[in-house]
Structures are given as C-alpha cells and as structure tokens.
Design brief:
Number of helices: 1
Low-confidence stretches: none
Number of strands: 7
Radius of gyration: 19 Å
Order of helices and strands: EEEEEEEH
Distance between the termini: 50 Å
Structural class: mainly beta
Shape: globular
Mean pLDDT: 84
Largest sheet: 5 strands, antiparallel
Strand order of the largest sheet: 6-3-2-1-7
Helix content: under 10%
Number of domains: 1
Strand content: 25-35%
Length: 105
C-alpha cells in the first residue's frame, strides 16, 4: 500500500543520490510507461514528483552511471514521507466559547 497520494507534499527520506535527501517535493502522479525517465522498482509504487521549490534534483542510473538534473522525476514511494496535517480531534475542532468571547473583547 502506498504511503503517498497525488497532491501530497512529502520529504525525500532516502535516495540513491544523497543530495536529494531532505528535499520537499510535491507528489504528482504514479509513474507509467509513457514516462521517458523511469525507475524500475519491484518493491512498490513509484511516483513522479516535482521539487516544491522549483530546484533541480539529481537522478543517476546505477546501470550506466548517466546523470540527470531535473525539477521533476521518479521516486519510489518507500523513499518518501508524506507531510499531512492531522485532522483535529473532536474536542479541538472549535475553541471554547469562553476563549472566543475573551478574544472578541
């Protein structure tokens, strides 16, 4: 099961190219056969991501050693940690009336 979803912001927590670790990215969509630059990953889904700051990231082919620097490209789901806010708990959803009244005065 994938941890990320399209539209998520995520942190790159692991990468073949260490310079990509810690980058904040936007998850765009799942990789498919029309993508010219692909990662073969039998361990799970691979996402097409975009660097949230518009900076180039580095990809490298372990087989050929060829390197690419692009703003968007493929990253395995297992190397991403989604950033999502938690839904407020029922008792946190609204401020108590006494606090709301005090702030209004």
């Amino acid at each position: 099961m994938a941890r990320c979803r399209p539209g998520d912001l995520a942190v790159v927590v692991s990468a073949y190219n260490r310079s990509n670790v810690g980058r904040i990215v936007t998850v765009l969509r799942l990789q498919d056969e029309r993508d010219e630059f692909r990662i073969e990953n039998n361990a799970g889904p691979v996402w097409i991501i975009r660097d949230a700051g518009g900076r180039r990231m580095q990809w490298c082919s372990p087989k050929t050693g060829k390197r690419w620097r692009r703003v968007r490209g493929p990253v395995p789901d297992s190397q991403l940690q989604p950033i999502r806010g938690e839904k407020p708990r029922a008792h946190e959803a609204t401020a108590p009336r006494t606090v709301t009244k005090a702030l209004a005065s």
